[in-house]
Protein backbone atom coordinates (compact mmCIF):
# COMPACT_ATOMS: atom_id res chain seq x y z
CA UNK A 1 0.00 0.00 0.00
CA UNK A 2 1.30 3.43 -0.93
CA UNK A 3 -0.15 6.78 0.11
CA UNK A 4 0.95 9.86 -1.83
CA UNK A 5 2.32 12.66 0.37
CA UNK A 6 -0.52 15.00 -0.59
CA UNK A 7 -3.09 12.54 0.80
CA UNK A 8 -1.01 11.78 3.88
CA UNK A 9 -0.96 15.49 4.74
CA UNK A 10 -4.69 15.85 4.09
CA UNK A 11 -5.48 12.87 6.34
CA UNK A 12 -3.24 14.22 9.11
CA UNK A 13 -5.02 17.58 8.87
CA UNK A 14 -8.35 15.78 9.06
CA UNK A 15 -7.18 13.90 12.16
CA UNK A 16 -7.02 17.22 14.02
CA UNK A 17 -10.24 18.64 12.56
CA UNK A 18 -12.72 15.77 12.35
CA UNK A 19 -11.97 12.52 14.20
CA UNK A 20 -15.13 10.83 12.90
CA UNK A 21 -14.25 11.31 9.23
CA UNK A 22 -10.59 10.53 10.00
CA UNK A 23 -11.54 7.18 11.55
CA UNK A 24 -13.87 6.42 8.63
CA UNK A 25 -11.13 7.08 6.05
CA UNK A 26 -8.61 4.94 7.93
CA UNK A 27 -11.11 2.07 8.09
CA UNK A 28 -11.85 2.45 4.38
CA UNK A 29 -8.13 2.45 3.48
CA UNK A 30 -7.63 -0.73 5.49
CA UNK A 31 -10.62 -2.38 3.78
CA UNK A 32 -9.25 -1.41 0.36
CA UNK A 33 -5.87 -2.86 1.33
CA UNK A 34 -7.66 -6.17 1.98
CA UNK A 35 -9.90 -5.96 -1.12
CA UNK A 36 -8.57 -3.49 -3.71
CA UNK A 37 -11.50 -4.09 -6.06
CA UNK A 38 -13.93 -2.66 -3.51
CA UNK A 39 -14.12 0.77 -5.17
CA UNK A 40 -16.01 1.73 -8.30
CA UNK A 41 -13.91 1.74 -11.50
CA UNK A 42 -13.66 5.17 -13.09
CA UNK A 43 -14.04 5.97 -16.80
CA UNK A 44 -12.64 8.37 -19.35
CA UNK A 45 -9.33 10.02 -18.50
CA UNK A 46 -9.47 8.37 -15.07
CA UNK A 47 -9.76 4.86 -16.51
CA UNK A 48 -7.66 2.44 -14.47
CA UNK A 49 -8.39 4.25 -11.24
CA UNK A 50 -11.08 3.51 -8.65
CA UNK A 51 -12.98 5.56 -6.13
CA UNK A 52 -14.83 5.16 -2.87
CA UNK A 53 -16.91 7.72 -1.02
CA UNK A 54 -16.31 8.46 2.64
CA UNK A 55 -19.07 10.83 3.66
CA UNK A 56 -18.77 13.93 1.47
CA UNK A 57 -15.22 12.98 0.51
CA UNK A 58 -13.83 10.85 -2.31
CA UNK A 59 -10.76 8.62 -2.14
CA UNK A 60 -9.25 7.85 -5.56
CA UNK A 61 -6.73 5.06 -5.95
CA UNK A 62 -5.23 2.69 -8.47
CA UNK A 63 -4.12 -0.90 -8.30
CA UNK A 64 -0.60 -1.73 -9.48
CA UNK A 65 -0.98 -5.36 -10.53
CA UNK A 66 2.75 -5.75 -11.28
CA UNK A 67 3.83 -4.57 -7.83
CA UNK A 68 0.78 -6.05 -6.06
CA UNK A 69 0.00 -2.80 -4.30
CA UNK A 70 -2.65 -0.12 -4.01
CA UNK A 71 -1.65 3.51 -4.59
CA UNK A 72 -3.88 6.15 -3.02
CA UNK A 73 -3.78 9.21 -5.28
CA UNK A 74 -6.41 11.72 -4.19
CA UNK A 75 -8.55 12.44 -1.14
CA UNK A 76 -10.73 15.52 -1.23
CA UNK A 77 -14.25 16.83 -0.86
CA UNK A 78 -16.47 15.46 -3.62
CA UNK A 79 -16.70 18.90 -5.29
CA UNK A 80 -12.89 19.12 -5.54
CA UNK A 81 -11.72 15.51 -5.89
CA UNK A 82 -11.69 15.22 -9.66
CA UNK A 83 -10.20 18.65 -10.39
CA UNK A 84 -6.63 17.64 -9.51
CA UNK A 85 -6.65 14.49 -11.60
From TrEMBL:
Has the keyword Isomerase been applied to this entry?
Answer: no
List keywords of the entry alphabetically: Toxin-antitoxin system
Question: Where exactly are the transmembrane stretches of this chain?
Answer: none
Q: Which Gene3D superfamilies match?
A: RelE-like
What SUPFAM superfamilies does this protein map onto?
A: RelE-like (SSF143011)
* Full protein name: Type II toxin-antitoxin system mRNA interferase toxin, RelE/StbE family
Amino acid sequence: MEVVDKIRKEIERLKRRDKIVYNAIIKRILRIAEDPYLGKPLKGILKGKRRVHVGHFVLIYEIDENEHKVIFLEFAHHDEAYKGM
